[in-house]
Amino acid sequence: LEYLLLGLVSTVPSFLMPMLVVGKVDSSICWMDRYWVKASLWIIIFSYVGNYFWTHYFFTVLGASYTFPSWKMNNVPHTTFLLTHVCFLFYHVTSNITLRRLQHFVADLPENIQWAIKAAWILVLAYFIAYLETLAISNFPYYEFVDRASMYKVGSLFYAIYFIVSFPMFLR
Fold first, then answer.
1. Angle, nearest 10°, between helix axes 111-137 and 78-105?
2. Phi, psi angles (nearest 5°) of residue 141
3. What is the mean pLDDT of the chain?
4. With b meaning 16 or more CB within 10 Å and e meaning fewer, what string describes 102-133?
5. Mean pLDDT throughout 34-61?
6. Domain coordinates of the chain in residue numbers?
7. From the CA atom positions of the chain, what is the Rg in Å?
8. Is the pLDDT of residue 65 over 80?
């Protein structure tokens, strides 16, 4: 129950804050058309698919498992669905900020060079975030790996594929 509460305490502000603190531009827009609503909806769908379907790769191939007592959906604790929303929202906002800065920085370069630089940045950022999350969760006492070295290298690489697809889509 404690981890479910942690998930709620972490996730609820990402919905409440934009509703309560509305900027000038958003105040004239219908709530369904606001960026935060679309971004949150994308992250909800994206994190649900990742938790429900993709985690089985980590469970079966890399031998990862959650061991804390919890309500589960497809062998994934409900808490992780909530915490994934917050983490993915942070990762994608970070990718948007860095990609927009990068677009501004390379704007005067030929288009094919711009594309190559942005693609390289997405690859590096995706792997970096996936690796850091894998490293961070390795200290969580209720998450176990059979082979940590494989999880750090191979698991992070496969996890990064998810971000390689989603970062450009979220930027749009």
1. 150
2. -65, -15
3. 89
4. beeebeeeeeeebeeebeebbeebbbebbbeb
5. 87
6. 2-7+39-171
7. 18
8. no
